[in-house]
Design goal:
flat, two-stranded antiparallel ribbon, Exo70, Cullin_repeat-like_dom_sf, 25 helices, transport, exocytosis, alpha/beta, Rossmann fold, Exo70_C, 4 domains, about 625 residues
Length: about 625
């Protein structure tokens, strides 16, 4: 088999119950690129029982084994129906790890995906994953599908840990927030690179993550009031179990705790390698503040239940790992949308300080935790300065043919709303260090000054961008962008930051832009009619001139100009439905009024011989601004 052909195939190991099959299949149907072929790998162990229909079936029951094979064909048919290229491959081997290693060699597999629960499914106590990590050919990129995440842990790679979150149809979802960098890293498989999104620096979808908006503490969330047992506390290295003496332990509580660990990705964050941050790893970093507070909750329970004021160094290790990770995160270059990850980390450390003081001595909290907080503060200010530079140097990447809202406008408005949600975190950060360049406009507080400055920079960008288009489209463009910002401000707490005067001024600006649009786009259209309805002395002069310089009739000139204007504005768009109706009404009134004035100026006998163009005019103008 040629290597290029092998690269075009993604090998997805299907294992466990039927629900596991369909979770894996659902992920593949959602995420495998159309130009790739997904090979569904089923592991059949002849020497072991096959569970089916609530009874144990021995391998000698050939008719049921055949049914097993037929059921797997249904998965291929399902893939085909959804236009995903799929093949089926059954590996027959009592030793699952050996079977997969042979598969990699025989088929020159370059991308292998399997469930992170595979050891539990086959009761191998970690041997499958360990063997694959150590013995699989280095050319094969191995990923584990865990709770909708792709995880890579091959030690041969520089990128020891990478993750991407996808939506799993019908089985719950988690939102994906891509980083702004286009570099996905050479260590990822070709499939992994193809699956990555590479949004621009001002892609508003980068801010569509609910964790960015979470500014409230989860420290006292009752969902975390569960019983901890030794097995569940493997996430915390297991040493904490000896400190727990909690009554009423039950399997349900144990399962609830374990499920919460999986949901939050706690173990993944603890294992995160900091040597080389890439955009896939940020999916884990966004969970840092949840993991810290969850860990603090566990330690608080340990202290309370054991009635001791100190605990072993091993139990403190998760906190040290998290602080070390936060310190490294603060030092790396980050794109602006990751500011909210930093702010959530800052808030989490603030909320955790009282319990940290109980767990560690005050000197440790002052030096270690204080050092991390200072680094996060510096990082946040640096990211805001970087944002300011990016905004001030922004140029539209596409021609503004419709006059609609700029990408940067949508991004910054969402960004500003998130900033206001984090006022409690931002004000202390902005009052320290060098932040004067961010606070050059007056405001109700430091965050208000920051927000006002960003809005002022955005308005400068919009004004400059408007100079790149024609006169009429320019004012429509200004209407769209100013109205979008104004509506979003009025509907959020940002209005408290900018004040009533700012809001009133923008309302007036929109009205002026609409008047300027009418004048620049439609005055030339009605001019032939207005000229024909001037004073009798001027009409006599114009009639005399026509003897020597014949011109079309006013109505013919008007119709020609109207058709030309409507055609040129066919793709122009007003984004707000309310403004669209208002502006369209203004245009119709402006043009129809000039037409009616012209008809009224004609002799009654002449007027009766003319076709009434008003219905046709209104019909043409009613199609404007739809884009």
């Amino acid at each position: 088999m040629q290597q290029t052909a092998a690269d075009d195939k993604i090998y997805l190991v299907m294992g466990g119950s039927e629900i596991h099959y369909y979770i894996s299949l659902g992920w593949a149907l959602q995420n495998v690129p159309l130009h790739k072929t997904v090979v569904l790998v089923y592991i059949f162990r002849p020497a072991f029982d096959i569970a089916m229909l609530s009874r144990v079936v021995q391998p000698s029951d050939n008719f049921l084994i055949n049914a097993y094979r037929r059921g797997r064909r249904e998965h291929v048919l399902t893939s085909s129906e959804l236009h995903v290229r799929a093949e089926k491959l059954i590996v027959e081997n009592d030793d699952v790890a050996a079977g997969l290693l042979d598969l990699i060699v025989q088929h020159q597999v370059t991308t292998l995906i399997l469930s992170s629960m595979i050891d539990r499914i086959y009761g191998s106590e970690g041997k499958i994953l360990e063997k694959l990590e150590k013995q699989a050919h280095p050319s094969c990129s191995i990923f584990y599908l865990h709770n909708g995440n792709l995880i890579s842990t091959r030690q041969e790679h520089d990128n020891v840990y990478a993750v991407e979150t996808y939506d799993l149809p019908s089985f719950g979802s988690s939102q994906c927030l891509s980083g702004s960098s286009n570099n996905t890293g050479d260590t990822l498989s070709s499939f992994f690179r193809d699956s990555c999104s590479t949004g621009s620096g001002f892609d508003v979808s980068l801010l569509d993550n609910l964790s960015l908006e979470n500014t409230t503490s989860i420290l006292h969330d009752t969902r975390f009031s569960v019983v901890f047992d030794h097995e569940s506390l493997n996430t915390f290295k297991g040493e904490t179990a000896s400190h727990l003496n909690v009554v009423g332990q039950s399997q349900e509580f144990h399962q609830a705790f374990h499920a919460k660990c999986v949901e939050m990705g706690i173990e993944s964050v603890f294992r995160l390698d900091c040597k080389k941050f890439q955009k896939k790893q940020w999916m884990l970093i966004y969970r840092w503040h949840h993991v810290l507070l969850f860990t603090i909750r566990v330690l608080d329970a340990i202290l309370t239940e054991s009635k001791q004021n100190n605990i072993s160094e091993a139990v403190k290790e998760p906190i040290r790992l998290l602080l070390n990770l936060a310190s490294k995160i603060a030092k790396v270059m980050k794109s602006p949308e990751k500011l909210f990850c930093i702010l959530n980390m800052h808030r989490a450390l603030f909320d955790a300080t009282p319990i940290l003081t109980r767990v560690f001595d005050a000197e440790f909290v002052k030096i270690e935790v204080g050092g991390v907080v200072a680094a996060l503060n510096e990082s946040a200010r640096g990211m805001l300065l970087e944002l300011k530079i990016l905004v001030q140097t922004y140029r539209p990447q596409q021609e503004l043919t419709q006059g609609s809202v700029l990408t940067i406008t949508e991004f910054l408005v969402k960004y500003i709303k998130l900033l206001v949600n984090h006022t409690g975190n931002l004000d202390p950060i902005l009052c320290q260090g060098q932040a004067d360049d961010l606070l050059n406009i007056e405001g109700v507080n430091l965050t208000g000054r920051l927000v006002s400055g960003i809005i002022a920079d955005l308005e400068s960008v919009v004004q400059e961008s408007s100079s790149y288009v024609s006169e009429g489209l320019k004012f429509l463009f200004l209407v769209n962008n100013t109205d979008f910002v104004l509506r979003q401000v009025e509907e959020s707490d940002v209005r408290l930051m900018v004040g009533a005067h700012w809001i009133k001024k923008r309302h007036n600006n929109i009205k002026q832009y609409m008047r300027d649009y009418l004048s620049s786009s439609w005055k030339q259209v009605v001019r032939p009619l207005e000229t024909a309805t001037t004073s009798s002395q001027k009409r006599l002069k114009n009639s005399f001139l026509k003897i020597f310089y014949p011109t079309p009739s006013p109505l013919r000139s008007f119709e020609s100009a109207l058709n030309k204007a409507c055609k040129s504005q066919m793709h122009w768009k007003v984004c707000s439905p309310v403004l669209r109706v208002e502006l369209r009404t203004n245009v119709i009134e402006y043009v129809v009024q000039a037409y009616q004035a012209y008809r009224d100026s004609l002799e009654e006998s002449v007027r009766g011989d003319l076709e009434d163009l008003e219905p046709n005019v209104k019909s043409k103008l009613s199609d404007l601004f739809e884009g």
